[in-house]
Automatic annotation (TrEMBL), chain A:
Entry similarity comment: Belongs to the iron-sulfur cluster assembly SufBD family.
GO BP annotations, alphabetical order: iron-sulfur cluster assembly
The protein's name in its UniProt record: Fe-S cluster assembly protein SufD
InterPro entries to which the protein is assigned, alphabetical: Fe-S_cluster_assembly_SufBD, SUF_FeS_clus_asmbl_SufBD_core, SUF_FeS_clus_asmbl_SufBD_sf, SUF_FeS_clus_asmbl_SufD, SufBD_N
Residue span(s) of domain SUF system FeS cluster assembly SufBD N-terminal: 31-175
Chain's gene name: sufD
Coiled coil start-end: none
PANTHER family according to UniProt: PROTEIN ABCI7, CHLOROPLASTIC
Organism: Bradyrhizobium archetypum
NCBIfam families: sufD
TrEMBL record, chain B:
UniProt-recorded name of the protein: Fe-S cluster assembly ATPase SufC
Primary role: Involved in beta-(1-->2)glucan export. Transmembrane domains (TMD) form a pore in the inner membrane and the ATP-binding domain (NBD) is responsible for energy generation.
Source species of the chain: Bradyrhizobium archetypum
Gene Ontology MF term list: ATP binding; ATP hydrolysis activity
Annotated signal peptide: none
Amino acid sequence: MNLVLAKNETGRALSDSFAIARDRLPGAGKVAEARSAAFEAYERAGLPHRRIEDWKYTDLRALMREVLPLAPAPDAAALKRAAAAVKLQAIKGSRRLVLVDGVFVPKLSDVVGLEKGLTIRTLRDVLETGDAALQAELFTPDNANPMVALNSAMTTDGVVIEIADGLVLKQPLQIIHVASGPAPAAMFTRSLLRLGRDAGVTLVESYIAADGAKIYQAHDSLIIAIGDNSRLDHVRFVEDSREAFNISSAVVALGAHAHFNTFSMTSGAAVSRYQATITFAGEHSRVETNGVNLLNGRQHADTTLFMDHAVPRCASREVFRAVADDRAHSVFQGRIVVRPDAQKTAAKMMTRALLLSDDAEADNKPELEIFADDLTCGHGATTGALDESLLFYLRARGLSEKEAQALLIQAFVGEAIESIVNDDLRELAIAATQRWLEARS
Amino acid sequence: MSLLEVKDLKVRVEEREILHGLTLTVNPGEVHVIMGPNGSGKSTLSHVIAGKPGYEVTDGQILFRGEDLLEMEPDERAAKGVFLAFQYPVEIPGVTTWNFLHTALNAQRKARGQSQLTSPEFLKKVREVAKSLNIPQDMLKRGVNVGFSGGEKKRNEILQMALFEPAVCILDEMDSGLDIDALRIAADGVNALRSPERAIVVITHYQRLLNYIIPDFVHVMSKGRVVKSGGKDLALELEASGYAQFEVAA
C-alpha cells in the first residue's frame, strides 16, 4: 500500500517536472516523440525496487525515493565554482569536455584545434540540428530499464564524439561531469562515442562535485560503438559528493577485431549504480572490464554488467574488487550470455570483496547463461576479511595496523588497477586509492 | 642490563597453558639455540615475544632493555629492534618485496624519530644488502614471497634482518623446509649478522643446524619450560641421547 502511494506521488511530481522541463529539452519531431515514449515507459514502471530481480540489492524507491527537479542552467557563480573543481580533476594532457549541471560548457572545455577526423558536438546541437540517423542512434537504449527510460526522456545535454576511420588519438578525451551548487537538483546527460574502423582513443569520465554541491542526482548514459579493428580504453572515476546519487548506464557495441578495455572506480556518491551492456557484434573481439569500489560510511555502490556474446570467437574478462568499511554496501551483478552461435567464446569473471567491518556488506550475483557448447567460461566470487596472518607479518616488520591494512588493501585492488593501459590513468587510480586509504586512517 | 629477559612466563592459547613458567636471559653479542621436541612451546615463545595475537600471558614478564615488551604493539617491538624470522613466511600477492621493505623500513625509522629514506636512498641500501647476501635483484621486484622456494623465503627473512638491523633476532625453525645447500646459505646469512651488539636466538628441533651456526648457549625446552641450559656441547649430548631424558625431568 505504502509502495503504491509512494510511486504515485513520485510519479506525479515527476510528471509535473517533465511538463515544466519540456521546453528546456532539446529536439522536436521524432526526438520529442522518443522522449514522450520514454517518459511513459518510466511512468509505468516508476523507480525500480527490490522486487525487480535486476534491482533487488539496489532498491531506488527506498534509497532515492524521488527524482529531484531538473537543475537550472548554471549561472556565472556556478561556473566559477565548477571551474575550480575542474582544475583539480583535469588530467594533464587530456582534451577536456565539461558538463556543468548537465549542460556542456565550451568555456571550460577544450574543443579548439580538433584533429582531422575528430568531431565533437553537443548533444543539444545534434538533437536540434543533427541528421535523423544520429538522432535515432541516441535513442537506441532500451526503455525496458526504467532509469534508462528516464534518462532518455529528460536528457538535456552531453557530448557526441565521432572518430573517423584510421584516426588513432594520442590525447585522451576527458568528460567531466560537475555538480555546481547547493540547491538539490537532478542532471540528465547522454553522450555518444563512435569509433570508426582502425581507430583508437582513450576516454576518461569523471563525476565530481564543486565546492558546496552536496545533494544532487547525476543521471548519465553513454552510448559507444567501436568499429572493426578499433580500440577504446575507457576509465571512469565516480567521485561525487557523499550525499549524491549517480545513476549511469553504458551501452557498448563492438565490431570485429575490436578491443575494449574499461575500468571503473567508485569512491564517491551516497548511492551509485553503474549498469553496462556490452555486446559483441563482430568476431575476434575482446573486452576487459575491471572495477573497484572503495566504500565506507553508509555508501551503496552497485555495478551491474551484462556481457552479451552474440557472435563466435570473442573473449571477455571481468575483474571486480570491492572494499567495504563501516556500514557500506557493495553490489556486483555480472551476467554473461553466450548465444547459440557464439562458439569459441572465452568468458571469465572474477569478483572479490573485502569487508573491513562486521556491518559492511557485499553482494555478488554472477549469472551465466550459456547456449553454445564449444567455449571456455568461468566465474569465481569470494568475500572475506583481511587475512590476520598477513597483517601480523606486516606488523612484525614495523607497520602500524592502519599501514598494514592499507598495504593489503592496495594489493587487493591492485589487480583490477593493473589492467589500466595508460600509465597516467593507472597512476590516477593508484592515487585515488591512496587518498581513500589516507582518509580512513 | 640484559637485552632480553623472559621471566617465569606463563602463556595460554584458548584454555590450554602452553608455557608453564619459562625463564631465559639473552645478552648482546650472544647466540642462543633453543631446542626441543615438537609441542614443547618453542614457537609459542617466539610468537609471544613478537606480539602475535591469540596468546594470553597469564603470568611473568618479558623485558627488552628493561622495558615491558608485552605492553607494546607488534610494530613498536619491531621498531625497538625485535625481529622474528618466521617459520612459514607468508605470501603477499600484489605487494612487491621492494615496496614492502621500503614501507617497513621507513615505518621503523619513523617510530624511532629517524628520517625517511627516499626511493633512491633505499634502493642503494637494499642493493648493497642483497648483494652481500647473494640475493638476486629480481627477487625484490616480485610479490612478497610469492612463488618463492622454501630457501628463497628464508633468504628473504635474512635479507630483512640485515636491512632492519635489529638488536635481537629470533629465528623460528629456520631450518624447516630447507635442503642442505639452502640451509648452508641461510646459516651463512645469519653468521654474517653476528655482532657484539646483536643477540641471535635460533629455534630448532634438529641438531644439524648447529653444524653451521655455533651457539654460545643451548637450551632444551620441554613441556613449556627450559629444562636444561648449557654450552654448545649440550647439543651433541642431545644428538646422542635424544630428548626423552629431559621429558622425564620435566
